[in-house]
Amino acid sequence: MKTKILLYAFFLVFGMTQAQQVQWAHKLIKYSSDLGGKQNSIKRILGKPDAFPQGGTSPNAWMPKKALDGYEWVEVSFEKPQTVKQVAVFENLNAGCVVRIAVDKGNGKYETVWGRKKDYKTPTFKATIPADRNYYFKRKRRKIQEAPDVVNPGVEYAILEQAVSGVVAVRVEFNFALLPGQKEIDAIGISDSDAPIAPTVNTTTAFESLPNAKTIELQGLVPSSGAVSTDGKTLYITAVSEAKTEIYSFTKNESGRWDNKKPEPTLNTNQYYNHLWCITDNLILKGGATYTRGTTETGFELFTVQNGTYVNQGQLKVSAYNNYDETAEAHLTPDLEVLIMGIETDFSQGGSDLYFAQQKEDGSYGFLQNMGKVINSAADEGMCQLLSDTKTLLFSSNGFSAFGSYDIYVTYRLDDTWKNWSEPINLGSKINSPDFDGLPFYDETNETLYFISSQNETNSLKAVAFPKVLLMKGK
Asked: Could you say which architecture CATH assigns to the domain 3-191?
């Protein structure tokens, strides 16, 4: 059967062509190799793309054992039979290694619908996202580190001259010796249309209509996070330098700008590292306390605010607390009944995940429980804020379709188990850049979103007017 194959650059779009019937690989049938584990396993090829349109290496993509220069293959099935006009293979690293595509119409026999000619090489392209971008990776004292290069990501579209009806499965074969470098495969899709299946970011037109974010001047401080008091009158900044990380506060001047920078020595209990994570009406939660591994200690201290003075109430304690990552994040509900943490444990989906624990009668917290696969990917999730309705959760991740290396998302709690959440929605390109954007904090009083953006190896605190009605359901 004659076919055409195309390799397209990406455009950031927000919906499929309505007339298309698109399905993504649903189940594995057979495959040539699997690295095992949770990251880069063969199961990561199932479902819609996670590493597109941003491209580049991702724990959410399949990395075969012979991805450098070997021959590999995979057979996948789809939820229901359909007519196929195109097969799309999403290759997030060094695209152009597909050599054969075959389809099964339900009889268990594969019919070849495309084969690469010996003298034919699929053209590749450079990613539209800068390859030399830097991101603000989640490690101790939050140093900026260089992100891995994005090398020739692409989607190979096998457009069939004649559609094939009743397709239930697809076999894709790769010759990774065709191109140098590592290879990863993100997803396989089929469609009844010859219109290319476009990689999408799950966002909304309302988020795309927000004004552009503005940079907040911080009088020489390099921020690693920001938080605003519940009355909207005090801005707390965690500032990072080569010597130490410490907390400062700002209040607004007559012109309405943040001014009057002041260090907070009572909160800076650690000589080298202090980080403010959560603030409620009369409580502040900060990290940086010395703790002993293998105990219930977490390294997070709780402060109450009494007549303008911060009073240390001691460390948060969690049953059987354990974290494989070098840092952790924490957030509390206003009533202190639920603790949310960003850590890595044996129960993580891959990297750091979001967990929750409920408060016990003695004030400590029970066992941390994973918040589920919907919001936790094979990559990293964390840096979260739960809003006052205790249902709206902002968090940062590099594990979903995105505009950059780390993006900010919102998800909504669906029940009281704390394990069922809605599909994460990207906050859009007015907030998320091609670089790192994370550590969100929403000031509900002034309806303003603050977040950290890292570009050209420099951190800045940004703010954008964000109506509560767009962010919090029912408001």
From this structure: Sandwich (2.60)
